[in-house]
Amino acid sequence: MAKKVRLKPRGRQADTRDTNILSDLINPNPNRRDLLIEYLHIIQDEFGRISKSQITALAELMKLSMSEVYETASFYHHFEIVESDEEENQPRFQVRVCDSLTCQMYGSSKLKKEIELLCGPNYKTHNVSCVGRCDKAPVAVVGKNTIEYATPTNVDRAIKNNEIRPAQINPISLEEYLKSGGYATFKKCLANKLHRNDVIEELKNSNLKGLGGAGFPAGLKWEIVSKQKKSPLLVVNIDEGEPGTFKDKYYLETEPHTFLEGMMIASWVIKSKHNYIYLRDEYHACLDMLHSEIDKLSRHFGSKLPKIEIRRGAGAYICGEESAMIESIEGKRGMPRQRPPYIAERGLFAKPTLAHNMETLYWVRDIIEKGSDWFANHGRRGSKGLRSFSVSGRVKKPGVHLAPAGISVMELIDEYCGGMLDGHKLYGFFPGGASGGILSAEHKDEALDFGTLNETGCFIGSAAIIVLSDKDKARDYALNAMKFFVRESCGQCTPCRVGTEKATMLMQSKSWDKDLLKDISSVMRDASICGLGQAAANPLDSVLKFFKHEIE
């Protein structure tokens, strides 16, 4: 019997029209698999969505399987995937309303309902996780326009006036920074007037730690990476997706070159010729600014500057975890890697990698110029250094407050935040965003620093302080945090994926099943492969420890 000849190739075929459009729009390089997410961003920005036929066309142009492109696009919240024939029926605008901790406190649920009452055929609303403006809650996003102190009226006005671009920011420019002596330390590095080992020792003596949340000593990290045999890479994490955190955005919008000089110094010390900046997608104005300022920087320093690439996140909290971030930079789903090997040995593109939070690098220049003692001499209660606290909630002056490490929350509120709101009394607080747990007012005098809260089961992490008052219930915010972790779990490991869902269901009961919730918490801590699952139960455990009266 003759073999039947297949007249058409297997699978979904790319539409010639889509292939031509994407070829002109992107001109994708099939040898740059790592740029897949960047290409998806271009499509999303151009059309407001990504159709499945466009995914097929992109896969063909990049010589990837359609499943590879689809699984990557569908992993990230900011890519709106639709069927091709749905295009004409899609609303013109997507209004995203933040429903995280501080926005819930300031009425995001009511805001969303009121916006929906105004909805015409041109837009629809949906909830999203924290967008990094907690000090100006509630927040809604129309296109790339983030509306602070959002109301149904100003959201509707933005839509009717087609106000979808980000608000302009006015940071210190390269020209201004150079006039004030900026990049003098980096120029000393290039001229070999500084020694690499001396810089590392200065950082060690300063007690500077990773300020993204982990608190690993910065100088030690530089030393480990610099001793690797292969040429290393440098990665800067500015994804700051932890609810309540917005300190990196503050420094980017005001003094970006202080951070950039710190990055250049780090790159020189470890001999990295290629740097990557991973920026959260919600910081649209910062993205435009960074591209502009780095272009100026390249012209100023020429070939002496290492290559710098900016990669946009796409709405995945898990990519704040360093190995998940690396997977994302490589153009893949942001799934945490098993360790060892650690990224200092085998990280981005299988090379030794120095990964830092932006704020850590922000302090490098000043520590070298002013000396390690200048930084280390700040602090209270035995702690050393400075911390940038992102404060939101029931205080008069929310915002980023630079204070000594080891300060207490009561001192922070009284000395920096203008006190509690009138008519409100301190009831509790998140010391480190959603994952840091919740402490009661009895802990108002505890030192806020790495390791100081271990006995309570909480931690400071990214120093995102969310203040609760006697008008709030801790259980409501613990539930909000757990719902956040359900949404943001990558799904790779069962304890995290299932544990967060089961805990959310149980936490909605008036009376909690304490024994079962403790079991779920224990399994999540012991068996999750990354920090998300291991820390997701912290707010739950805090309620069981410090707010028992709310659940009985």
Q: What is the helical fraction, as a range of percent?
A: 40-55%
Oligomer: single chain
- Total strands: the figure is 15
Which topology of the largest domain does CATH recognise?
Rossmann fold
Low-confidence stretches: none
Strand content: 5-15%
Radius of gyration: 24 Å
Question: What's the level 1 CATH class of the largest domain?
Answer: Alpha Beta
Indicate the CATH architecture of the largest domain: 3-Layer(aba) Sandwich
How many domains, as an integer?
Answer: 5
**Helix-strand category:** alpha/beta
Distance between the termini: 76 Å
Write out the CATH superfamily name of the largest domain: NADH-ubiquinone oxidoreductase 51kDa subunit
On the 0 to 100 scale, the average pLDDT is 94
The strands making up the biggest β-sheet line up spatially as 12-11-15-13-14
Shape: globular
Largest sheet: 5 strands, mixed
List the helices and strands and how they pair.
Layout: H1 16-25, H2 36-47, E1 50-51, H3 52-62, H4 66-75, E2 81-82, E3 93-98, H5 101-105, H6 108-118, E4 123-128, E5 140-142, E6 145-147, H7 152-160, H8 174-179, H9 184-190, H10 196-206, H11 218-226, E7 233-238, H12 247-254, H13 256-270, E8 274-279, H14 284-301, E9 307-312, H15 322-329, E10 353-357, H16 358-362, H17 364-370, H18 372-376, E11 386-393, E12 399-404, H19 409-416, E13 426-430, E14 439-440, E15 464-469, H20 474-488, H21 494-507, H22 514-527, H23 531-535, H24 538-546
